[in-house]
Write a structure and sequence with these properties.
The chain has about 120 residues and is mostly helical. It has one domain. It has five helices and no strands. The longest helix is centred in the C-terminal third of the chain and has 33 residues. The chain is elongated, with a radius of gyration of 16 Å. The termini are far apart.
Length: about 120
């Protein structure tokens, strides 16, 4: 995902020249490699710890998505990416269905384990 995400961000920033676009690529790539797992773990914890199934799915979808946007936007803004907002907002549209699917999967596993105990 790092190369794909970095490629998207490179494309978004390419009109500003090679070096700004390459810098944005690098920031996005490193985010995906080092920080994305934190968001996935947050999704898992929320899906398992909130008692209400609907509440857990809402939280495990929206919180990691917002967290991912905030972290990515901060990295791009502080790092001087020319189109920091555009380089970050596209992830929201991608992350919502991904975290919903992950939340459902984690919740099903949790409920299955709870029934077996």
């Amino acid at each position: 995902m790092g190369v794909i995400g970095g490629g998207i961000v490179y494309y978004i920033n390419q009109e500003h020249g090679f070096f700004p676009a390459a810098g944005a690529f690098g920031k996005q790539f490193l985010y995906n490699v080092f920080i994305a797992g934190f968001n996935i773990k947050t999704c898992e914890k929320l899906a398992k710890r909130i008692k209400s199934k609907s509440g857990s799915l809402i939280a495990s979808t929206l919180i990691p998505t917002a967290q991912a946007f905030a972290i990515t936007y901060s990295i791009h803004k502080i790092g001087g990416t020319p189109k920091a907002y555009d380089s970050s907002i596209w992830q929201v549209y991608l992350n919502l269905p991904i975290f919903l699917g992950l939340g459902l999967s984690y919740r099903r596993k949790y409920e299955k384990l709870s029934q077996n105990l």
